[in-house]
Amino acid sequence: MRRGPGFSFSRRSLCRAFFRYAAGTIFLLLFYFPAIPVFAAESETVYPPSERPAGGLFLGERIKFRITYMGLPVGEAESLVKEIVSVNGRDAYHVEINIRSKTILDWIYRVRDTHHSYIDAEKIHSLRYEKTIQEGRYWTDEVMEYDQTANIGKFYSKKDNSRKEMFIPKDVQDQISCGYYYRTLDVKPGTKATIPVNADEKNWDLEVLAHEVREMKIEGMGTFRAIEVEPIIMFEGFFVRRGKVRGWMSMDERRIPVVMKVKIPVLGDVTATISDYDPGRPQNLN
Fold this sequence. Notes:
By secondary structure, this protein is mainly β. The chain has a single domain, classed as YmcC-like fold (Beta Barrel), CATH 2.40.360. Helices cover 9% and strands 52% of the residues.
């Protein structure tokens, strides 16, 4: 069935579309949209507000999310700050994100995506990014190395052995590190952060607007004092439309991403809601 000029959808193309949008947005911040109904568990945890964020990552921090499409469970995502490793002589946090489709959907469109980000432990910018994507019949396996001193990015595809070098801006972030970096900022209502991001072999500007703070209750998780945030993607000065996103981030010291919702043109809403949280611990690198 045709849905206007240029649109022709099958079950497989719909699955591919909403997982692509969900995955890309989860890397950016894992936000929350205020229209989502949330409720407190009977025995709830209270996350008190903090004047300032921790300023770094928490080793061992694990966040799990359930992904729904039009209210139906379609997948899950997990982020983990695994360890401290050395990358080109620099201490770096090794962060891993996995996104999986539900088993019941695998026969329609199987998703098994794994992403690794190596984040400079002192400067909180990206040193290396790896992704292994398996979505239906499509797959890719890529590596991006960031020379932050020379402002050079080195791309390598394990799929076809292609290589490419490109200019990268100062303190560039990858698709994962940008979200962790934003969590270290002193975010308040009315503030705007502009973050240089390299993704898909291009340099983008991610602008994040911070709006109002309110109390939220998440089923099974507890009560958060949370700030609404809105990401806007810019490319060469122009706004890039990739679906409307709203999110909420806790205002305690950890700045936990709580839930995000993406409104995708034609397809509808994709939502990622926090389902489990292991705080890990701050890492003393001295």
